[in-house]
Amino acid sequence: MNTSPIQHSTATRPLAAWTYQSAELAELEYENLFRTSWQFVCHVNEVPRQRDFFTLDLPRDPVLVLRGEDGVLRAFLNVCRHRGAKLLEGAAQCKARLSCPYHGWSYHTDGRLAGRPAEHTFADHDTQSLGLRALDIEVLCGLVFVRIVPGGASLHSMWAEYLPLIEPYRLEEMVPLQAAFLEEWDCNWKVGVDNNLENYHVPVGHPGYQRLLDSDLTGFMNVHGVAGSLSVLRPEPSSNWAERMYQRMAPALNSALPAQVRNTWSFFTMPPNTGLDLYGDSMDLFQFFPLGGQRCRVRYPIYVRPDTRREMRVLRHLNARINRRVGAEDRALCERVQAGLNSQDFAFGPLSSYEHCVLDMHARVQDACPVSRLPHNPGEGVLRQHNANMRAA
Ligand code: FES
Ligand SMILES: [Fe+2]
Predict the structure, then answer these.
(1) Does the domain at residues 38-151 carry the CATH identifier 2.102.10.10?
(2) Per-residue pLDDT tens digits for 91-149
(3) Ranges of each domain in the chain
(4) Which residues pair with 106 in a beta bridge?
(5) Closest Cα to atom 1, ligand 1: which residue?
(6) How far is ligand 2, taken at its centre, from the CA of residue 50, in Å?
(7) Ligand 1 neighbour 103 (Cβ under 6 A)
(8) Is 100 in the pocket of ligand 1 (CB under 6 A)?
(9) Does the beta carbon of 85 lie inside 6 Å of ligand 1?
(10) What is the largest CA-CA distance in the chain?
(11) Domain 1-36+170-393 is in which class?
């Protein structure tokens, strides 16, 4: 594994504060960063049977993962080809045909159009091209990701060097603990991702983690910007009872896992917006989605290996207690950062070498949206045009 910090070629300076305020830039970021990248939808064990489906509403694109009657897992835009009604809601098992609730166009589970009411009223009877819009789909260690704009690196190539770190956690066996948590944070989505990309804030910002874990403050990153760090449970008992109990119980309860991960919490971030946190007893994902310029939606699903031992339930409860507090600390910190970034005159100070992944992420935003290189907002309403001009130049 390459653990040396790899700086993106254009990672020269951090983003300007205005890029954390602009609703128009958030739209451009969604178009140029989110739609072109892998977005986590669900675990394969949430769609195990034929005709099982799982939907996710991305900011502008409802998406659908569906296991066809042939057993193949596919991804589609969850949008009817007739006049655009959203087809399915939530997650369940559908019938042999997906029927649109508006005018009743119906689709096979492989996405082909199956029929439409009053077929004789349509001038064009070539329905071959009227199937659901297919999306890129890839499963990594049981986790199902989709990509709206096709092409680009595969998930496996982006994560290849980290698979030896991830596979021992046996994610493919996991099932959802409960429905994903959804929150809205009062900060730009990038504040949340920046925060996820560095452990420099852990000693001060997360006293619990500091007591519990020996955190790798530098972390590592590859050429795709997939970044991570490994934190090891400290041997000396924490002064906090929940953390102390977790330290005491985790190694024995995780004894079925390889030794190197029993005591290790592994944290990863994949550009632009996905965090992956692996523990011996469970795992979770953090996804940040823009809601305008100064607000974001956070999706937080948790998965566990099926294990009915009472002690394992206790361990997960302790983990949830510890990580709920850390999540609340992160939210409060991110919202404080947004409050400061909203100041007219603020510019980021120098970044520590512990923050190399933050700088890389900023370079990715600058590459995807050249207008974000400007020190000042050229003006809401003309930002898209400026971006197009800068891209053409
Ligand atoms: S929008 Fe779906 S059938 Fe009309
Ligand atoms: Fe944090």
Answers:
(1) yes
(2) 999 999 999 999 999 999 999 999 999 999 999 888 899 999 999 999 999 999 999 99
(3) 1-36+170-393, 38-151
(4) 99, 115
(5) 83
(6) 39
(7) yes
(8) yes
(9) yes
(10) 76
(11) alpha beta
